[in-house]
Amino acid sequence: FKRLFSYVPEMYFSDFVMIHLGVQIRLAGSGSTQCSGRVEVYYGGVWGTVCDDNWDVNDAKVVCRQVGCGTALSALQSAQFGQGTGKIWLDDVACSGYEGSLSACQHRGFGTHDCKHSEDAGVVCSGEKNFDSLTVSSILKSVQIRLAGSGSTQCSGRVEVNYRGVWGTVCDDNWDVNDAKVVCRQLNCGTALSAPQSAQFGQGTGKIWLDDVACSGNEGSLSECQHGEFGTHDCEHSEDAGVVCSGVRLAGSTRCSGRVEIYHNNAWGTVCDDSWDVKDAKVVCKNLNCGTALSAPQSALFGQGTGKIWLDEVACSGSEGSLSACQHRGFGTHDCKHSEDAGVVCSEAQHLPDIS
């Protein structure tokens, strides 16, 4: 498989693999091995640790997969591999276990924490790192994606794939919402709303890397889905595939009820309940394909979020396509606390909480 990436110098090959699986990670500390140790993350040009708040085996699964070390045997807390120094980059990490990289999991945002290095998280994985035994398919999990094109946003646009150092598009043959689900998940952009075909975000140029993509919807990255060989296709750029992701999620309850969180500037954050009403909730419910809005709970009814509060004084008419399109004070401008986090209950919610 190294022939696939022959342009990468041998001495940098393992770093290349980890970098492109997401934010680079390593295992370090007293008694550490290639596949066990204190988890450290490289962000902003600086290595830092991960806090053990809520750290569990699902988080460890993602780390072990990301570093090519098999399955997770345990998720250690309380700096069992010794205390790190400097930055603590991640806290309250909450992985499902299926993410392609640790940074794709839910967390409070880089550098936001209430921890000390005595709480540094660690992992013990099942296998020693052996790149010679990795399959080509596991290396291809490293392929990066982005959204581009006319009218694109951070969470909607023409799907582009970086392979062998070159960006190219994806053909829309068999492209559907299951494929879009994987893209939205890989980009940490919430749920998939649609899977546009026929170059709806404009035609790309250069390479068309993927064709006949067939995802189940549960894969951790687009390149893990079934597809033809990279660069093998019978398409033109008029068939470039796209996605529209929600960029919004509900936390603390069910798929269609919960605390409203939006994705902005590479971080999830909450919405303040100042002026929050059913018109605002209507936009969220529509955005998530959750039917109509039944109520717009205030005062952190679904629990207090952490980290950023992105929006305040939201004033929707109810017809907007996304919450960020409504009138508001501007991203990150607010006079709120998380005790004021806004929520929604949509008509498609199951097991509705008691909101009386």
From TrEMBL:
Q: Where is the SRCR domain?
A: 25-126, 145-246, 248-347
GO biological process terms, semicolon-separated: zymogen activation
Q: GO terms for molecular function, please? A: serine-type endopeptidase activity
Q: Which Pfam families match?
A: SRCR (PF00530)
Paired cysteines (S-S): 51-115, 64-125, 95-105, 171-235, 184-245, 215-225, 272-336, 285-346, 316-326
**What keywords tag this UniProt record?**
Disulfide bond, Glycoprotein, Repeat, Signal
SUPFAM superfamilies, alphabetically?
SRCR-like
PANTHER family hit by this protein? SCAVENGER RECEPTOR CYSTEINE-RICH TYPE 1 PROTEIN M130-LIKE, SRCR DOMAIN-CONTAINING PROTEIN
- This protein is called SRCR domain-containing protein
